[in-house]
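User: Show me a protein chain along with its predicted structure.
Assistant: Here is one chain, sequence first, then structure tokens.
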Amino acid sequence: MLFSLKSFAGAMLALYLACRAGLPRPFWAFMTAYIVAHPLAGNVRSKALYRFVGTLLGCAATVVLIPSLSDAPELLTLALALWTGLCLYLSLLDRSARSYVFLLAGYSAALIGFPLVEAPAAMFDTAVARVQEIGLGILGASLVHSLVLPASLAPSLLALLDRALGDARRWMSDLLGDGLAHADGARMAADRQRLALDITQLRLLSTHVPFDTGNLRWTAGALRAMQDRLSALTPTLSAIEDRLEALRAAEGEVPADIASALGRHAGWMAPQGLSLPPAAIDEACATFRALADGPASSPWIRALRIDLAVRLEELVREWQACIALRADIDTGLTGGALPLRRTAALGGRVLHRDRGLALRSAATAVLATCACCAVWIATAWPSGSAAAMSAAVFCSFFATMDDPVPAMHKFVVALLWSLPVSVFCVLVVMPLARDFGMLALCIAPFFLLVGCYIARPASSLAALGMFFGVAGTLALQDTASADLPSLLNSNLALILGAVAAARITALVRSVGSDWSARRLRRATSLDLADLAARPQDASARDAYAGRMLDRIALLAPRTAPGAGEAARADARLALRDLRMGADIASLQQWRRCLPAEAVGRLLADAARVFRAQATGAPRRDEPLLPQIDRLLLGALHGDAARPADAAIAALVGLRRNLFPAAQCALHP
């Protein structure tokens, strides 16, 4: 109810300013204020900025295209459709809040340009008026949501951050406290999946942090660094889990000295031990480092011990970095100064991007828009421009879904239900409203009620359909001269455009969850091939970890409900790929500690294997095992300095990930 009241107040403020300014379509300002509304003030301000920039770009495209192609309506409509498709493609590649800029630039040009195809002389005045109306809507919403009981992003974001830390701590406790023998496999798989989802949500939500109304905006750098550290923590935890399992398989149980060391130095991961002094941390690291020199019955056991020692030390350092960053965030929330961070955060560039699916979505928008334009031109339909606008907007709104058609159909049904309300508002309420106060009283019941349902996720889609049906009619119609035939004609065009978008989407764009999951796995194989094919910088490991965690989060809702063991197998494969990328990046980093020719040949062969896997061909990786074993034996009998230990750990990880069922003995 509070959200609905604030949204309505911001919309009425925008409507009042637009009316006082004498703008031709003041309800554009009203509708915009609702579009940018959000329960959190920071999200409102970010959406407001990006919507205004996107509207400017869309208007600029209209101003460029219409004068150039006004003599050829067919080419003009094609150009507008292609512009919409291009902007939609770019918006789908940027999964942060900035994608709103491209989305708005695309369908703003459609909303402004299509009605002007037959009246290009009014192009500039209409474009300027539209920018002013949308700007006033943005201003009204931003003022009300920022000044009247503003809701900060901090509680939601910090709760998500602490939940991610709790998930990581629970994973460590499962491994180092209870041990693998007593862990519940299903619960552990759920914990891993939830951690990946939390990190992805944290990365997406934090794009709004610089716009927050409180001190949270000063912690943006620490939050970005925290996301990167949590991403780097996960392959390390997964590797430790795998190595303990390998030791148990080879020795029958975890060696006593390892179990004892884990039990003695588990305080650094407990909540009450988060503030351990540096000396205690160094002591734990030294103890774990010494495990590499413990008793080993074979070269393979020695390699596993070295690997485990390296991972445990990494885990302690990375966890303490997370705790230090969490303390920095608390300092920033109280207004204190934060340490200067010179290392650039990975940010949204580690998120998964499916260029093929984005191109398919853009092509669908172009086809749907062109189909409506063809009917409009062929029939000389006076309201045909509304159908083209509706198709462009619908294809843009629902492009992020695997199968947008059910949501489109639900939205169309809501539009049909809104039609009587639209007719009542335009033909009955507007003529009776003699002043602004009377208008506000007349429309308040409907919009206050719909606003309550917009704020509820379960009903937001239907409520948005009702809202856009009524507010869109008020924005697109000249309410002073509207009559029933023109009103019904334009609404029919909007609905037919939406239906056309849904049908073409069903033919061209709709994909199943299995298809999307295969695309995600193919992208992972290509990433692994790229990691193996050429040397990587120091950030490659963390960047791959962040991208892989994002893919795990994307795969989670695409797993069939109740899949049971099959779902857990998919989760294990995803974690294996996460570890494999981290190990390949680490091997690239420490390849100078190994024979150059041998490691180069191994990585080149691995790249070919992953590229073949991406095409769906059988993975023929058998020649890689003897190459890894020869490199491991050479490293084990060479210099035991720290860099060599890191290289050995990378080779052990590669062997375990590629050949988990291989014999434990190393063969030269």
